[in-house]
């Protein structure tokens, strides 16, 4: 078998086997002041600690988009986030309140988010592409009292229908402020706020700081709740896996609306005190290569879909940029094809390191390391301090080579602590005593490497983003022409999967390309652009169980021309 040999340098994780045998999470606590004071706040550790330890003048954030180019030191970020913290306090926010952040990537987003964490609020990041219904579902479920947004996005917040939502804080000039007492100008409130660090709320390690909404195969999006203690793992995987060092310029391409964009777009890098690049705007190969070139990025964390799009770009795009600053590349979110790893090796002369984890796991769990060989196509091996296994449905561990449920021994620091308002859902993950069951199917080989095989539910990973078929189906049937809808992920060369919808029309509607487009526009304007079915197929009726549930497994089999399996529960009327 093809293997990419271990790197020959000196790394933050030099001896994987030894760390696995001796490492204890307690050791990591010593890196933080709270191990002595007992007072903790992840935002303080992320920003202020560096100032207090003499690294205040170091560049923390290098931000750019089409119109702006700015940089901020740790001292500057400390002052700005302290000021934001005072502002939240002045507006009545206190520990445990849910504050949503609904903004495009910008320095203001990072300040708004960390400032809220400083006062002990639980932040809910929302991806900027979300439209009204998606925004509403999340604000409703979490009973958020505040949302921070921009003039461009504010109209998507249906505030009349959200009794708990007291304040809509708008960053930038807006004609909305003043029109209702709910709308408040953030710039004005910031200007009135103090900038000392007395607004910090010292909390317990087990207090929450973030609520990431994510999709399952059934039901509404679920609020995955993480606590301050997660910092131990953000910090330590930043060392072991991202291999971060003092002089690194690090770039994580994920948006903070998704967990990768917070755990590794904010906390992992800044807990380790490295310079963090944020690039606003949309993806284009030229822009991305240009970003690496411009900032001399050394460590780059991205996703398979992006790598595949770069692979497909004209060779000149690559030749126009100097990418020689790169020394370490990583990937997450979907299976990383061996072909992409080979491309990375050819083009950058570097190995692409796959990492596996989930919104629910809060931080990386199964990874490839610079000091270990890579088997292209494998997600790698569990980090020290974490045990992973393959178990059957009763919790029996399976031998190497056998496929089963990818499961993690419970108790790692960044593990979710609850699903907001939904204990039964939370408990489903831990139905097998002692294990967290991921919902992914995998096997382990004789050398302890894990190999991803698929999801065992209907969750769709499209272009690295996680979408639930249920939310899309529910929206589709709200369209006047749609009687029934079933949504699946269809394998796609570039995006991993695309969203495909099977639709049965209401009486009186005829299938046509115009109708397809109209339905796509409907989803785009009410739910989100990334939730639009790229393919729609009309059917006279959809396969359903006798209890009326759409059988997505049959739709998938139709799509892939595979046998449909056991149809005994199908309603044949
Ligand atoms: C998938 C993203 C294959 C998996 C951090 C998981 C992966 C889901 C990998 C979580 C990988 C993540 N190889 N599949 N290296 N990493 N996945 O919550 O199906 O957006 O369950 O978290 O992404 O997606 P989520």
TrEMBL record:
| Keyword ATP-binding belongs to the record | yes
Q: Which InterPro entries match?
A: AMP-bd_C, AMP-bd_C_sf, AMP-binding_CS, AMP-dep_synth/lig_dom, ANL_N_sf
Which segments constitute the AMP-dependent synthetase/ligase domain? Answer: 52-410
Q: Where is the AMP-binding enzyme C-terminal domain?
A: 471-549
Extract one GO molecular function annotation from the record. acetate-CoA ligase activity
EC code: 6.2.1.1
Q: Which GO terms describe its biological process?
A: acetyl-CoA biosynthetic process
Out of the domains of life, which is the source?
Bacteria
What are the entry keywords? Answer: Acetylation, ATP-binding, Ligase, Nucleotide-binding
> Would you tell me the protein name for this molecule?
acetate--CoA ligase
Q: What species is given as this protein's source?
A: Alkalicoccus urumqiensis (Bacillus urumqiensis)
């Amino acid at each position: 078998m093809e293997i990419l040999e271990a790197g020959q340098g000196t790394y933050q994780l030099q001896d994987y086997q030894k760390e696995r045998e001796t490492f204890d999470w307690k050791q990591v606590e010593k890196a933080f002041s709270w191990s002595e004071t007992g007072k903790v706040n992840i935002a303080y550790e992320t920003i202020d600690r560096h100032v207090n330890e003499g690294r205040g003048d170091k560049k923390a954030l290098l931000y750019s988009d089409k119109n702006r180019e700015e940089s901020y030191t740790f001292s500057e970020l400390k002052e700005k986030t302290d000021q934001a913290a005072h502002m939240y306090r002045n507006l009545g926010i206190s520990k445990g309140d849910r504050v949503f952040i609904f903004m495009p990537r910008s320095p203001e987003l990072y300040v708004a988010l960390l400032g809220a964490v400083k006062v002990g609020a639980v932040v809910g990041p929302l991806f900027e592409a979300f439209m009204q219904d998606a925004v509403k579902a999340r604000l409703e479920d979490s009973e958020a009292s505040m949302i921070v947004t921009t003039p461009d996005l504010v109209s998507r917040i249906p505030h009349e229908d959200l009794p708990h939502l007291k304040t809509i804080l708008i960053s930038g000039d807006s004609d909305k402020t003043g029109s209702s007492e709910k709308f408040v100008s953030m710039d004005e409130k910031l200007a009135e706020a103090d900038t000392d660090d007395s607004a910090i709320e010292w909390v317990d390690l087990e207090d929450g700081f973030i609520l990431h909404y994510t999709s399952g195969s059934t039901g509404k999006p679920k609020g995955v709740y993480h606590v301050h203690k997660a910092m131990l793992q953000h910090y330590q995987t930043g060392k072991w896996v991202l291999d971060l060092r003092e002089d690194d310029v690090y770039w994580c391409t994920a948006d903070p609306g998704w967990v990768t964009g917070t755990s590794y777009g904010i906390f992992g890098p800044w807990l380790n005190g490295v310079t963090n690049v944020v690039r606003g705007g949309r993806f284009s190969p030229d822009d991305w290569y240009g970003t690496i070139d411009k900032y001399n990025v050394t460590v780059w964390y991205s996703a398979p879909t992006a790598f595949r799009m770069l692979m497909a770009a004209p060779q000149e795009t690559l030749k126009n940029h100097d990418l020689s600053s790169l020394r370490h590349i990583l990937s997450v979110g979907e299976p990383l094809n061996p072909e992409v790893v080979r491309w990375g090796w050819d083009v950058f002369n570097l190995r692409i390191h796959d990492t596996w984890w989930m919104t629910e796991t809060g931080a990386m769990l199964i990874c490839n390391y610079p000091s270990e060989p890579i088997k292209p196509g494998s997600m790698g091996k569990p980090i020290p301090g974490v045990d992973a296994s393959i178990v059957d449905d009763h919790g029996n561990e399976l031998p190497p080579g056998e496929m089963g449920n990818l499961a993690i021994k419970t108790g790692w620091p960044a593990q979710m602590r609850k699903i907001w308002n939904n204990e039964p859902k939370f408990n489903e993950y831990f139905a097998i005593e002692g294990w967290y069951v991921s919902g992914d199917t995998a096997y382990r080989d004789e050398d302890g490497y894990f190999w991803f095989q698929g999801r065992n539910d209907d969750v769709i990973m499209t272009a690295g983003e996680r979408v639930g078929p249920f939310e899309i189906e529910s929206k589709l049937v709200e369209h006047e022409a749609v009687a029934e809808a079933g949504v699946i992920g269809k394998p796609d060369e570039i995006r991993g999967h695309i969203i495909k919808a099977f639709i049965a029309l209401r009486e009186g509607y005829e299938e046509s390309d115009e109708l397809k487009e109209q339905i796509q526009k409907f989803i785009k304007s009410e739910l989100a652009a990334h939730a639009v079915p790229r393919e729609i197929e009309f059917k006279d009726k959809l396969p359903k169980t006798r209890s009326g549930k759409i059988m997505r497994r049959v739709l998938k089999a139709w799509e892939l021309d595979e046998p449909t399996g056991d149809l005994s529960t199908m309603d044949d009327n």
